[in-house]
Design the sequence.
């Protein structure tokens, strides 16, 4: 397994800053975030995509994924037809951008106003994603679905979209616990074939309070050793991303993740 760094830079999509942070933290790759509408406008810029690829090669690191956080500010793939159409157009542009930039996965987060809570919303999400599977295959980019869905719902989504392959689960350990799911059990149930990337995120859960994700890895309530053992048990060999609450904690988070994975893999 390789360790990547998922750290949001304040000025939008900035691969050079993210790659520099990854180097300092001894991570092997970084996730680039497209969190705002202004960032999404840059997805049609072929020169920017080429620059991202050049910067990654120069840094000797991989661009693990392009995460479209901007989808979460509206019901992008579960809402009215016009909203879905515009979001699908954005994702199509992002797939082309990712292919040019050498990014293996385009992560589609179903959080915020884009969170799937009702059966009909899951149906709309499947319908919206269906036409993008061929586009992902043509671009050579995997669609990664990061969501609050349970294992059964995630399997249903993958099955409707043709199964693991061009669409996989971007599994978030912190979100799983916040949804009162056992992250290690979910990983074992999904299996390595369905999981395209793992976000090793911690979260602090306190009764009467919203989940607190701004915690250091190991300072929350996720059973991280159990998660690492589950990944080893299913033979997962993909990217594991860490998302520290601050740039100053990036190196410690990467080291912690590496220590957990090595311990789990030891005989």
Sequence:
């Amino acid at each position: 397994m390789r360790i990547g760094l998922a750290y949001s830079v304040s000025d939008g999509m900035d691969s050079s800053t993210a790659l520099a942070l990854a180097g300092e933290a001894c991570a092997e790759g970084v996730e680039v975030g497209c969190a705002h509408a202004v960032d999404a406008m840059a997805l049609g810029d072929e020169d920017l995509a080429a620059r991202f690829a050049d910067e990654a090669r120069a840094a000797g690191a991989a661009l693990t994924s392009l995460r479209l956080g901007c989808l979460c500010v509206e019901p992008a793939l579960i809402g009215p037809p016009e909203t879905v159409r515009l979001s699908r157009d954005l994702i199509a542009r992002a797939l082309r951008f990712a292919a040019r930039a050498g990014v293996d996965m385009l992560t589609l987060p179903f959080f915020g106003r884009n969170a799937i809570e009702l059966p009909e919303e899951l149906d709309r999400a499947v319908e919206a994603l269906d036409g993008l599977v061929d586009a992902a295959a043509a671009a050579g980019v995997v669609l990664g679905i990061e969501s609050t869905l349970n294992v059964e719902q995630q399997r249903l989504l993958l099955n409707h979209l043709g199964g693991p392959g061009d669409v996989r689960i971007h599994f978030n350990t912190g979100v799983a616990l916040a949804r009162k799911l056992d992250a290690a059990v979910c990983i074992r149930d999904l299996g390595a074939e369905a999981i395209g990337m793992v976000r090793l995120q911690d979260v602090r859960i306190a009764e009467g309070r919203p989940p607190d994700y701004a915690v250091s890895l190991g300072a929350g309530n996720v059973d991280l050793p159990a998660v690492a053992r589950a990944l080893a048990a299913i033979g997962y060999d993909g990217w594991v991303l860490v998302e520290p609450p601050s740039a100053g904690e990036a190196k410690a988070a990467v080291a912690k993740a590496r220590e957990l994975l090595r311990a789990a893999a030891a005989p």
